[in-house]
Write a structure and sequence with these properties.
Layout lengths: L4 E5 L7 H9 L2 E4 L13 E6 L2 E6 L22 H13 L5 H13 L6 H15 L5 E4 L10 H11 L4 E4 L9 H5 L4 E4 L21 H8 L11
Parallel strand pairs: 1-2, 1-6, 2-5, 6-7
Antiparallel strand pairs: 3-4
C-alpha cells in the first residue's frame, strides 16, 4: 500500500518558509478554515524585515461583533490593502539580491489578490507561491470534507480517513492538545515537523531572522529559494 501523507493547518497570510516545508512534505495539505477566526494571529498578517526592524503587513478584516466567526467567513474591509502591501514590499526589498528577478511576478500576485475573504486571499497566495517554488502538493479546504465530530482531534482523524492517509504531519505545538491514539487506532502514524537548522541566506538589514514571510526568502534568493527549504 502506498504511503499517503496529509497535513492540516489553518491558513496564514504569506507565511514563513516552515509553512511551505509542511506543504512540500505531504501529498494533501488541508486548510482548516472552518475553525474560529482569532485576532492578532497569523491568519491576516505576517512579518517582513525593514531597515527599522521587523514590521507587520496586516490585511484589515471585519471583526466587530463577529467573535465566533469562522476563518472562511472572515471578510476583508478595505480592498486597497493589496496595493499598500505591495508598495511596502517594493520600498523595503528594492536592494534585495533577486528583486529584479521576482518583482513583476509579485506585483501580479498582489494585483490579483482581490478575493473577499481572508481564507480565499490566503489560498491565492499559497497556490501561487507553491507554483513558484515548484511544490505540487494539492491544497484543499476542511469544508470540502464531511465532518460530523465536535472533538478537534477526531475531526482531524476524519479528514485523514477520507483521504486514505497513512501518515499525518503536524507542528510540535500540537503535542499539547492532540490525542495521538485516535490516529494510531486508525493505523495513521503521527509525525512532527522539525523547524530547526534552517540554512541562512543573503538577507537584508542586519541580524538574520528566520521567522519572516517567505517573500523575504524569495526576494533574496529568487528561484534558488527552494534550496533553503528542507523537505523538497
Amino acid at each position: 500500500m502506498n504511503s499517503i501523507k496529509v497535513a492540516i493547518s489553518q491558513s496564514n497570510y504569506i507565511p514563513w518558509k516552515g509553512y511551505f516545508d509542511n506543504i512540500a512534505r505531504v501529498d494533501e495539505f488541508v486548510l482548516y478554515d472552518d475553525m474560529q477566526y482569532t485576532k492578532r494571529d497569523w491568519r491576516n498578517r505576517n512579518k517582513i524585515k525593514t531597515n527599522n526592524g521587523l514590521k507587520w503587513l496586516t490585511i484589515p478584516v471585519k471583526v466587530k461583533g463577529k467573535y465566533f466567526q469562522k476563518i472562511k467567513d472572515t471578510e476583508i474591509i478595505d480592498q486597497s490593502w493589496n496595493d499598500q502591501h505591495f508598495q511596502r514590499l517594493k520600498q523595503n526589498y528594492s536592494n534585495a539580491k533577486c528583486y529584479d528577478e521576482v518583482i513583476d511576478r509579485i506585483e501580479d500576485l498582489y494585483s490579483l489578490a482581490t478575493q473577499p475573504t481572508i481564507s480565499k486571499v490566503n489560498h491565492h497566495f499559497l497556490v501561487h507561491i507553491c507554483k513558484f517554488l515548484n511544490i505540487d502538493t494539492n491544497l484543499s479546504f476542511s469544508s470540502d470534507y464531511n465532518l460530523k465530530e465536535d472533538d478537534k482531534t477526531k475531526r482531524l482523524v476524519d479528514i485523514c480517513l477520507q483521504l486514505n492517509a497513512t501518515k499525518y504531519y503536524s507542528g510540535e505545538a500540537a503535542k499539547s492538545y492532540m490525542d495521538e491514539s485516535l490516529f494510531t487506532n486508525k493505523q495513521i502514524s503521527v509525525n512532527y515537523f522539525n523547524y530547526s537548522d534552517y540554512k541562512e541566506y543573503d538577507q537584508l538589514y542586519g541580524k538574520f531572522e528566520h521567522g519572516v514571510s517567505i517573500l523575504d526568502l524569495i526576494f533574496s534568493e529568487g528561484k534558488n529559494a527552494i534550496n533553503f527549504l528542507k523537505h523538497t
